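histidine kinase, Streptomyces heliomycini. Tokens?
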Amino acid sequence: MPLFWRIFLLNAVVLIVATALLLGPVTVSTPVLLTEAAVLTAGLAAMLVANALLLRVGLAPLQRLTRAMTTTDLLRPGHRPAVGGRGEIAELITTFNTMLDRLEDERATSSARALSAQEAERRRVARELHDEVGQSLTAVLLQLKRTADHAPPGLREELRQVQETTRASLEEIRRIARRLRPGVLDELGLASALKALATEFGGPGLSVQHCLDADLPELDRETELVLYRVAQEGLTNTARHARARRAELALRRAPGGVELRVRDDGRGIGVAQEGAGIRGMRERALLVGARLTVDRADGGGTEVRLAVPVPARLPAHALVPVRESAHAPPP
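Tokens:
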């Protein structure tokens, strides 16, 4: 039954009962007696209370749906309001859940395309920095060295300083290129890339320790890239905003997959809204069906956890070709 007719009929029943009482044992005289006024007032109050209770019970699923609409975040998928009520209310909640499923699928697809284009652009910029700018600066360094070898002693020292500045610029460009597209990830694998990342962020003001399990399951390239980028963003936030002295980068085997953890002893996460960095990590986590949590660590600081599911792989001896059993002799 539609919501309108349910509310209308409930109110109609209340009004019909009140009218029957007025036409039956309850009468109204002119002028109105005190007892009659009391009876009418009590009847009106009873009708209002009954109407309020009936409407609250009938519209409670809509209030839950409203709260779900205001708190839904596509970067935290999976949360759905429970389907309650009857008729149009249940149909409305079901339609809303279906819409969320479609929006999450479209968001994941568009994020995958955007991040794929971003990674392609990073590769292009890193290649140009390494091949063009890096080679140009290398040529400048060689020219400066030849010039300094034949220069007078007074000018030679100035050329040495320029040479050191150029060498530092070349190292900075190479560092930027490595961060844009980590070649060690493609060449040596995820473990070596994470160790290099911990070494890169470690320094006099921040000590970064790494703990990587040796028996990690086999991961595809997309999953490895997501793990690397989340670790990179977590350490970047630690170095820039946490004011931490120590940080830990860990990658361990977990039930059903692997878990990445970036933890520091800094000032902790505040109450402000999540920035672009954390939202970017959430978008990357959605690409591989992972679950990302950013919370205050025990004892202070911030802890970033990324739980990545890894599908189980059958051993090679368990894979039996179907065509061999097709010609098996009958029992």
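Residues 314-331 have pLDDT under 50 and may be disordered.
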